[in-house]
Structure formats: C-alpha cells, structure tokens
Amino acid sequence: MKAMYDKGIVNKGNPARIIKVMNMALAGQPVKVGFIGGSITAGSLASTKETCYAYRVYSWWIEKFPLSEVSYINAGIGATTSQFGVARVYPDLLQYNPDMVFAEFSVNDSDDDKFQETFEGLISSILSYETSPALLMLNNVEYDSGNNAQRVHNEVGFHYDLPIVSVRDSIYEEIVAGNLEISEITPDNLHPNDYGHELVAGLIINLLEKFYEEASSITDTNVHVTYELPEKPLTFNRYGKSVLRNNLNTEACLEGFSRDLEIKEEWDVFRNGWVGKKKGARISLEVEASLISIQYRKYAKHPAPIAKVTIDQEQDKEIILDGNFDEDWGDCLYLQDIMVAGKAGLHTVDIEIIEEVIGVNFYLASIITA
To answer: Do the domains spanning 2-216 and 243-369 agree at the CATH topology level?
Structure first.
C-alpha cells in the first residue's frame, strides 16, 4: 500500500508552513484543520461523516498530536467549482482562521485556462490570508476514465511550491493495472465509498507522515525553513479578489423579487438569495467589477422559470438564465458567467423573469464579482 501511496506524491513542495503547524501541535497549542472542495470533500457516499476522507485525515491529526486541541472545518460543497470556491473561501473557511488547509477541485473543474485561473485565485487567497495557513493539494479522479483537472491545477501547485498528492497517479493506476476493481472503491465511478475514502485519506496521510518525521526531529519550534509566496502569479489571477454577494451583504432594488429570509441548514446552498415568481419580476443592483457571474437554481424537474440578465441596460446583449437543468441527479446551484474581462468599474445588473412556472420560484442565489 505504501508503494501505491508514494507514487501519488506529485510534489513534496516546501513544507515549511505544515511543519510549523505540526510543531505548534506538538507543543500542545490548538490547531484548526480545514478542507475545501466538492462533493467528495463533503463526504458524498461515505456511510457516515466520520468515514469520509477529510474526517479521517482530521482523525490522524488528533491521534498524532494528543496534546493539541484539534478542530475540524469541512467546507466541501457538492457540484461546485473553484470559481465558487474562491468566492466563498473566506465566509466558509478562512474566517475561522484554519492553520492547515486541504484543497481539492480536480473533478469539479475543467482542464482549461479558465479553471486554472480560478483555482489559482483560491490557492493564492488561502496562502496570502493574514494567518498564513499551510496548504496541501489533492487531485481526485474519475475512476472510469482517469479524467481530472490536475494538469492545470498542478501547474499552479508547482508555481506555489505546494505539496500535492494525486489519486490518478496512485489509486487509479492500481485500477488500470488490475490490482483494484472500481466497484471496490466507488459505486458511481466518481464518489468513493468508505473503503475508497480510506484510500484517499491514506494517500494524504502518507505524505503528512513524512512531514511529521521532519517536524519531530526539530527540537526548537522556531527552527524551520521559510515559505515565500512567488513574486508573480502564474495566470492573470483575476479571481483572487472574488466577492460573493447575497442578501446578507448586498442591497438590491426589488420589483416582484423578495429576500429569502428562511433559516436553512448550512449545507443548503439555496439560501440567503432572492426569490421571484411572476413574469416581469425584476431585481437590480450595482456592483464594482470587471468580472460578473450569477448563481441561480436549475431544476431537475421541468418546466422551470427562465430569466434574462442585462449589464448596464444593454438590451441587445441580454443573456438567458434558464432554470431547466439538463441532468436529473437533483437541482443544481448553477454558476454562469455574465461578464468576462469587462471594463473595470461600476456596473448595473438587471435580472427579469421572462417565463414563469406556477408553483416554482426563480431562485437567485448570489452574484459573484471580481
């Protein structure tokens, strides 16, 4: 098993921040361990929250550092990309001041330049946060095809000299070699079962153990190598300052829309937004941005409401927000780009329902700007 895990180490990177956190824990100081990613991080298809890979890694910290009070933050949200991740990383994760962060979006993002840039936005936001958290990257994989976004993600990881482990380069290779059956570790070729989560956790823990050996050999907790952020980003990194705007932090002019004030569970992604019902209902707001995206609810059950959005009242450039989801696994928190590489400055965003469906709301979850 160790040989398989070792093959999954894509980059040991600069472990200075991780070793610093481990030394804090060895000295009995409290440590916060956080995770951000998609449904696998959230624990999808694990039988309990304690059997998902993230909790297993957290349990390793508890077992390894009995003198430390180790806290757990899981910011995984299913069917979401790093574009949403960078916009929510502060409210969902960084505001709790994590010391150690694990990030994975390799099966949520596409293997392209856009998601390399959004992923860099997430990575740079974490590393540059005021508490200087440590960071380790994980590449999950589609077990039937080997597809993921690790090519573009890991270019970011190498640029920031981060520790990286890859499921594709380890567990998936064992499947290709015939040493593991897909059915042993996943029922749907993507989300691990309990045994699959155990293997993913083992991949991460294998690298953490190597850093633990290094940390344990340092008697003076002030003695460790340093970590410096690169002087320049790999991409344009335009998403690094993304802001998630919802009814908690943004005022809007409402004509037929209303604020969603219902108290909902933390895992419910359809909260703190705005709700419209009737054709002609409008919501308008002003944002400072050069990039604008809109999150809204797409329904698996059809028909669903449809809206249009215009920027700066340019009616000839309206964009359709179609609430009909083309998949059937459930309703989707859909993120749609509205303005990319636009002129930086103050912009007016107008959204209007153009097709209503009785009994079904158009749900505007947020507007993301950068």
So the answer is: no
CA 332/CA 335 separation, integer angstroms: 9
pLDDT per position as a tens digit, 44-87? 999 999 999 999 999 999 999 999 999 999 999 999 999 999 99
CB 345 within 8 A of CB 291: no
In the chain, the N- to C-terminal Cα span, in Å, equals 44
Where do the structural domains in the chain lie, given as residue ranges?
2-216, 243-369
For residue 224, the model assigns a pLDDT of 53
- Peptide bond between residue 303 and the one before it cis (omega within 30 degrees of 0): yes
d(CA 292, CA 300): 25
> Which among 284, 249, 210, 258 has a CA at the least distance from the CA of 361?
258
Helix locations, 65-149, DSSP H: 82-92, 113-127
Residue 222 scores a pLDDT above 50: no
- In this prediction, residue 266 carries a pLDDT of 84
User: Is 223's pLDDT higher than 50?
Assistant: no
Q: What is the rounded CA–CA span in Å between residue 199 and residue 53?
A: 8
| Tokens describing residue 365 | 């979850």
Task: Name 111's Cβ contacts closer than 8 Å, sequence gap at least 6.
Answer: 147, 148, 149, 151, 152
Q: Which residues 6+ apart lie within 8 Å of 234 measured at CB?
A: 116, 120, 155, 156, 159
- Asked: is 243-369 a CATH 2.40.30.10 domain? The reply is no
CB contact at 8 A, 124 and 240: yes
Superfamily of domain 2-216: SGNH hydrolase (3.40.50.1110)
CB 81 within 8 A of CB 103: no
**Residue 78 exposed, middle or buried by CB count within 10 Å (0-12, 13-18, 19+):** buried
d(CA 73, CA 35): 6
